[in-house]
Amino acid sequence: MNLQYLEQLIAFEEEGTLSKAAETLLLSQPSLTRNMKTLEDELGVQLFLRKKNKISLTETGKYTVKEARKLLVHEQVFFENVQRFSLQATTLFGGICAPGVEWELKNRLADKKLPQTLKLELLSHQDLVEALLSQRLQFIVTDQKVTDDQVLSSGFFKEQLYLAVPPAHPYALKEELTLADLANITMLLRSDLGIWQPLVDGLTDTKFIVQKDWEAFEELISASALPSFSTNITQQARETDDQRIHIPFSDAIATKTFYLSVLKKNRAILTQLTTN
Prior knowledge:
single chain, 3 domains, D-Maltodextrin-Binding Protein, domain 2, seven-stranded mixed beta sheet
């Protein structure tokens, strides 16, 4: 069966007429009409009620549309799974809960001279665990251990939050800060913070200028006297010296412990990434 015919059938159901469906599909109406007749012949059922100047789906046609949508989803999953398998020799598929984890993972691969590249997704804890158990991801990094009989979970690294300020900033001489010290100040902030987002959301007396693009954010830091967050991980990851003073926060929630988890059959990945 030509799966494109199923896509065309779905387009007819969505558009309501053959002419509109043909226009959407960039086909001629006669071609679409022939394809739908061929689909009926291949399936051996009547999909359409044909009346003068009007064509509509039979109940079987409506059911076929519903099943076609399911089949096309499975087709996409099939292609993705085959492509994923072909990449596994050179690519590790992982999930992370905070942006700094990506830099830590890349640094470890570089330090160990490992040949793999990383394909990472930033997800919530629940979504990370589900993706690991379904084997969509080969490993995940979370801020709490995964307690499941199928999973091995090991301590990975700690990330400490800092305030990064220019040397002339009033806070530059402080040895440490608390999050309460951020009240009534304006800061630069990256978006997509993962597990750090609740901490930021709690700073209701702090004004944030949020930037999504990493390169643009780095340029803002270089050009601005406004404070920003950094961590022990991001400080190492920066390619250029930003000339800023980095002051740690003493609050307990300003330090995160991360755990790397794999399915037991992927123990080798755990060993590869955690062993010094």
